[in-house]
Specification:
Layout lengths: L7 H10 L3 E5 L4 E9 L2 E6 L5 E4 H4 L5 E4 L1
Length: about 70
């Protein structure tokens, strides 16, 4: 990709067009929405607070993360 397709704004708009992936961080009880994916890493946004990054492998850890439907 090049040009405007590399911009973070375009990536966020594109992510909004995709079905939302939601995850529960079991250790803290915080629910996150995956707002962007790049290189196998998800940018997770809570309702309040700082965004975090987690890889696909980290999100697959059922002891820490639960995918919400």
């Amino acid at each position: 990709m090049n040009g405007m397709y590399d911009s973070s704004l375009f990536q966020r708009i594109d992510a909004q067009c995709q079905p939302l992936l939601r995850y529960l961080h079991k250790l803290t009880g915080i629910r996150y929405t995956a707002v962007a994916v790049a290189g196998g890493t998800y940018e997770l946004s809570p309702i309040h607070g700082e965004r975090v990054h987690a890889s696909h492998e980290q999100l697959a850890n059922a002891e820490v993360w639960q995918k919400l439907v």
